[in-house]
Specification:
The protein has 106 residues and is mainly α. It contains 7 helices and no strands.
Length: 106
């Protein structure tokens, strides 16, 4: 469920998918469409790379409560408010793991 990628790169790809899909259509859409096994892999990746607490906590909250309109509204608002921080976090992942990314495309 990790696209065959090393964990940090899976986190980058899945993180981009989570934030992009959630930003466009809401977190409910992402969690509804994402298999539970892949959600668990994402949570493990977030835990493994010591993601920011708000990113980890909000992902876990989305996994647990994506059917609850009140909680998903709060998550949608968090994503909107956190766009710049999320972008910096994902760019940081890409920068940190650049050699691994380049090895995949070489």
């Amino acid at each position: 469920m990790t696209y065959g990628l090393p964990q940090p790169l899976f986190l980058l790809v899945e993180g981009l998918l989570w934030f992009a899909q959630s930003g466009r259509s809401g977190v409910r859409t992402y969690f509804e469409a994402t298999p539970v096994d892949r959600q668990r892999a994402m949570l493990q990746a977030l835990e493994h790379v010591a993601a920011p607490k708000d990113v980890l906590g909000n992902y876990q909250s989305g996994m647990e409560a994506w059917r609850d309109p009140f909680r998903t509204t709060n998550l949608d608002r968090w994503i909107d408010r956190s766009d710049e921080a999320i972008t910096r976090y994902l760019w940081g992942l890409a920068k940190t793991h650049r050699p691994e990314i380049e090895a995949l495309i070489a």
